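Thought: the user wants the 3D structure for the chain below. I'll pass the sequence to the structure tool as-is, report back what it returns, then summarize two notable features.
Action: structure_tool
Action Input:
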Amino acid sequence: MIKFTLKNKVGKARSGILELKHGTVETPAFMTVGTYGSVKSLTNSDLLKCEAQIILCNAYHLMLRPEHKIIKKAGGLHKFMNWSKPILTDSGGYQVFSLSDQAKVSRNGVEFKSPLNGDKMFMSPEKSIETQINLGSDIMMIFDECTPYPASKDEVRKSMELSLHWAELSKNANTSGMPLFGIVQGGMHNDLREISLKELTKHNFDGYALGGLSVGEPSDMRNNVVEHMGCKLPEDKPRYLMGVGKPIDIIYAVKEGIDMFDCVIPTRNARNGQLFTNFGNLNIRNKKHESDFNPIDKDCACFTCSNYSRAYIRHLDRCNDILAGRLMSIHNVYFYQEFMKKIRLSIEENTLDSLIENIEQNYLCK
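Observation:
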């Protein structure tokens, strides 16, 4: 089940409602990443209090451990992890990219060694879709190849054409009727991106993503692709920018018409003492916070800011206490959900440009 309704539009930016089997998602939306079926150190109660609407899990990793058939026996991923809201599952295409030094790629799929025990494994579009069906995802992603950067245009073209072949196989393998998104590839070449999109739309996917970004390219190149392609994605379908997650990059992409985002940045950065606030980045490990008894952000209502000081959190971090990472993760996840709320409100009130200016001052000018 999927239904996407546009509510407001300002220039290219838009807000909407995405209705899925396990609930409703207001867009633009940010998906917190729970790769193995959990957001590291956080309970589902934590996520709900942060008002997370949807999370992302990874089919590749769950196929390896605990195995998707075990999760199917549990009644699906929602029951297995006791999460009642929507889940989007990434197909494993990025893992092909990250394992490229040891993987053998063919038109049928990818052969690789299991990172767990060295066993020979094979991941194909059909296997990826079977896994995601067994997981019971609210949104599945096609199996694609994430083109590395840098690469020659000929290499990018061949990779894009392989992804298109896999997109067709993924579509044909989806006999479940569950929502499936296509992924536009083509590297930094907008003409190849347009070819990819044209071919993908022939399959009438339930949504469309821009993939193959945040793989080491300069930010101006990435922004150029998003600016060129964002509004070209089908107007009546959700538009998803994969793996891009800095606040400034998110709001720039929203301005170009993107609806959905995911990234490990909020939780990964939190575990390394890097915090997002309404006044810019904050590094809790700086000595100046040693005797600072203010919250991380006085304008934040998260559990962490309501109960603990910078000094205490810094103390926990210096002691390598796992509570530090947990408290900072709660803050960052909450910040991102509040940030997306502000974006949605700014679209409704036609104040997006003003919000962009504020974010630029806080995150670019310091």
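Final Answer: Structure generated. The chain has two domains: 2-263, 274-366. The chain has 15 helices and 16 strands.
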